[in-house]
Design goal:
Blueprint lengths: L1 H17 L7 E5 L6 H17 L3 E5 L6 H8 L7 E5 L2 H8 L7 H4 E11 L1 E5 L7 H10 L5 E4 L5 H13 L4 E4 L3 H10 L4 E2 L3 H10 L2 E6 L25 E9 L4 H15 L2 H9 L3 E2 L4 H22 L5
Parallel strand pairs: 1-2, 1-3, 6-7, 6-8
Antiparallel strand pairs: 3-10, 4-10, 4-11, 5-9
Helix pairs in contact: 2-10, 4-12
């Protein structure tokens, strides 16, 4: 009888232990500065995640090396579900643009799920003579190597979008890298560069103010925030598609049941009206996936963008 009772106690104790996660606050590493697009996305979901997990989820900005510093710290964290990380395209592209990136996305992390997507937009100074995408492409082809575009830095989404545009349009446009999206946009406003490819939410205030003109968005459908601006495909680049996505990950080795618990909280968060309204106001669309679907998506993006980086000879060193 005693051994039956002992087994019952152990079983109940084990079950209770399995149900206690999370039992303390969770750190959400954001490998970018406050105010950037990834940080904004984190702040849009963190309150809802906290409510659904029953513990505080707090943001820890760890910046440097195009997101690599924060990723390295997250990779070395205990694989217990109490440290998670949110990142965008450099998660998979740093390995192609940097010699010593310090982490391996596929080896060192397990995806929890994708979070959201946002289009970029092609903007030009308001005094640019080209009034639409076809006119800009014609101008660039007539002046190879003379027009310029600004980016937030080598290997950033601005840069990759610009290079994809050059490839798709058959143009030769000079890349001018800046230290951040703000300076890149300011010089586009001032006419020091001829165009830029910012994320839509960053471009929107300038477009509304009339200091920048939006010629196209990079998603497959028009944005509700700029319904009069055509897509790249409508402008003649039939296969063009480029969006900035965000993915939530945990260190490799995190128990599968904890990953599933985190995914369930994320899915519920992305389905809540409050978060959906916040996303829409920031030109974001929810991207709901299982952990396995996220893994397959990231592998596909790594292959696609890695090919572009190698073909264009992009390096940050």
């Amino acid at each position: 009888m005693r051994w039956v009772l002992a087994i019952l106690i152990l079983t109940l104790t084990g079950s209770a232990g399995a149900e206690t996660f999370p039992g303390r606050p969770i750190k959400l590493v954001v490998p970018w500065p406050p105010g950037g697009s990834v940080d904004i996305t984190a702040r849009l979901i963190v309150e809802s995640l906290s409510d659904r997990l029953g513990v505080r989820v707090f943001i820890d900005n760890q910046t440097g090396a195009n997101g690599a510093v924060g990723m390295q710290l997250a990779a070395r964290a205990a694989a217990d579900g109490y440290t998670i990380v949110l990142n965008t395209l450099p998660l998979v592209t740093n390995q192609y643009t940097m010699t010593n990136v310090g982490y391996d996305e596929a080896r060192d992390f397990v995806p929890i799920g994708l979070v959201g997507t946002s289009p970029h937009t092609l903007v030009v100074p308001s005094r640019m003579p080209a009034k639409n995408l076809a006119e800009l492409i014609a101008l660039a082809r007539a002046r190879p190597g003379k027009l310029t575009y600004s980016s937030a830095g080598v290997g950033t989404t601005f840069h990759l979008c610009g290079e994809l545009f050059k490839e798709a349009s058959g143009t030769d446009i000079l890349h001018i890298p800046y230290r951040g999206g703000g300076p890149a946009l300011q010089d586009a406003v001032g006419g020091q560069v001829d165009m830029s490819f910012p994320i839509l939410s960053a471009a929107l205030p300038f477009v509304k103010a009339g200091t920048l003109r939006a010629l196209a968005v990079t998603s497959t459908e028009r944005s509700a925030l700029m319904p009069d601006v055509p897509t790249m495909r409508e402008g003649g680049l039939k296969d063009f598609q480029f969006t900035q996505w965000t993915a939530l990950l945990a260190p490799a080795g995190t128990p599968a049941d904890r990953v599933e618990r985190l995914n369930a909280a994320l899915v519920a968060t992305l389905g809540s009206k409050e978060v959906l309204d916040k996303f829409q106001a920031n030109a974001l669309a929810p991207f709901v996936t299982t952990p396995d679907e996220a893994r397959k998506f990231l592998a596909g993006e790594s292959d696609r963008l890695g090919k572009l980086i190698k073909e264009r000879g992009i390096t940050s060193e």
